[in-house]
Every structure is written in structure tokens, then in C-alpha cells.
């Protein structure tokens, strides 16, 4: 996700927040109009201020007003949004006829492509990343709908609604020829900060078992390849274990926790995207 927010590329969502604050004179009012939380708006403004090298708004008696640098940013922001709307109109669509932005945990990306048809995804822009990043994108307003894995079924922000959720039972997995020498540390295929990492390490810590990081990568598919190569063990949802791997039922492996798959949407997008949400429920949540 970090590559997406490099200073060389500023998302239009941030431009809309800049214009929104300028027009309303208030972060609170802009957040309400845009369907975002105040922390999300503040986070966006910090990002653009970091990109342009200075403050673009200042507190005044009447709310928030643009600084001299902010006035220049505002001019460019309006130009960017106008150009964006004009580009969308080239295909005969209205300015708000934009693709639905669907954020998806990497774990579920292959399954999504398998169960949804091209026609159903014609007006969907997919973004796959870790569950933590998908949640962050939802909160910051960079995706409209999210599917991710979590240990809680609570909405991550007041502006987000949980549409559906279900327990997604996970299991240890290994290659068919993987063996572990007696007394050796458990070799893990993981990436710290992700929920699967926490499920593995917490289970092993509870049992007082020794482990080591044998392969570390944020790329989910790379970890799968490492498992196929027999380098170590990882954890996957039971229903997503590929044929090239097998569930590891060895007696010494403690059962990991029971996370949930969450389908949620930003509140202002739920009603107008009810059809897509129903499709995701039927094709994805019931798998």
C-alpha cells in the first residue's frame, strides 16, 4: 500500500477533502459531506501537507482557512478534480459514475477472481493487500467496500457498516514432504504485523513452543510458494488450502485462533451498491 501513496501520486480523494474543507470552512463539515470520519480527513490533509512541504490550512475565528500555500494547492486540486470528471464523461458517464473500489485481503484474491464473473466485476476496481491495509483504506476513504480477515466483528470506524461476517476456520499447512526434526524450532512462513502471523505466534507462545522465522514476505503468494518448497509451516483458511499443500495435523501443533471474514462498506456507498454486496454475500461469504 505504501507505494500507492508515494508523493509522486496524490489520490483524488485527498483533493476532494481539500476542496471540501475550503468550501465548508470546517473539517467536521467536510467529513460529514464526504462520508468520512474527522480522523480520516485529518490523515489525508497530513499526507498532502507532507507532499507539498507545508501547512495548507490554519485555524481562524471562522473555522479552517487556507494558507498561502493552501490557496495554491486548492487551485490545483480543483483542476485535478475537473479533469478527472471530464475524463469519466468521455465514455458517456456522469461524474459520479465511477467504479466501485473494492479492497480485498490478499488471502481472498484468487477466490474472488474464481467466483465473480467478468460482467459482475465490470464496474469494480479491485485492490488487494493485507487485511490491516484494507481496513486503513476503508477508514481513510480510499476503498468503498472491504473484505478482510479479523479477530473482531466490530466495524473499524463509525462511517463503516459491517454487511456480513462469518467464522473462517484456519489450519496449519505444509508441503506433503515436510518433516521436522525432534526438538527443532517450528519454521514459520510469515510476515509480522499480519493477522496470520499473530495467529501462529500466539498459539505457539501459549504452548511455550520455540519457533523461528524461516521465510518472511508481505507477499501472500510468495509464502504459499515457500510452503510448497517445504521450507516451513504457515496458516490458511481451511477452505482455501491449495491442492499442492496439505493440512498439518501433527500432534505438536497447537490450534490457531478462530478469525472472521468481514464484508463491510462505507455507509454512504452501501445503499447504491446493494446489488454488488448481495452478489459478494452469495458468491463469496457462503463459499
Automatic annotation (TrEMBL):
<keyword id="KW-0238">DNA-binding</keyword>
<dbReference type="InterPro" id="IPR050176">
    <property type="entry name" value="LTTR"/>
</dbReference>
<dbReference type="InterPro" id="IPR036388">
    <property type="entry name" value="WH-like_DNA-bd_sf"/>
</dbReference>
<protein>
    <submittedName>
        <fullName>LysR family transcriptional regulator</fullName>
    </submittedName>
</protein>
<feature type="domain" description="HTH lysR-type">
    <location>
        <begin position="10"/>
        <end position="67"/>
    </location>
</feature>
<comment type="similarity">
    <text>Belongs to the LysR transcriptional regulatory family.</text>
</comment>
<dbReference type="InterPro" id="IPR036390">
    <property type="entry name" value="WH_DNA-bd_sf"/>
</dbReference>
<dbReference type="Pfam" id="PF03466">
    <property type="entry name" value="LysR_substrate"/>
</dbReference>
<dbReference type="InterPro" id="IPR005119">
    <property type="entry name" value="LysR_subst-bd"/>
</dbReference>
<dbReference type="InterPro" id="IPR000847">
    <property type="entry name" value="LysR_HTH_N"/>
</dbReference>
<dbReference type="Pfam" id="PF00126">
    <property type="entry name" value="HTH_1"/>
</dbReference>
<keyword id="KW-0804">Transcription</keyword>
<keyword id="KW-0805">Transcription regulation</keyword>
<comment type="function">
    <text>NodD regulates the expression of the nodABCFE genes which encode other nodulation proteins. NodD is also a negative regulator of its own expression. Binds flavonoids as inducers.</text>
</comment>
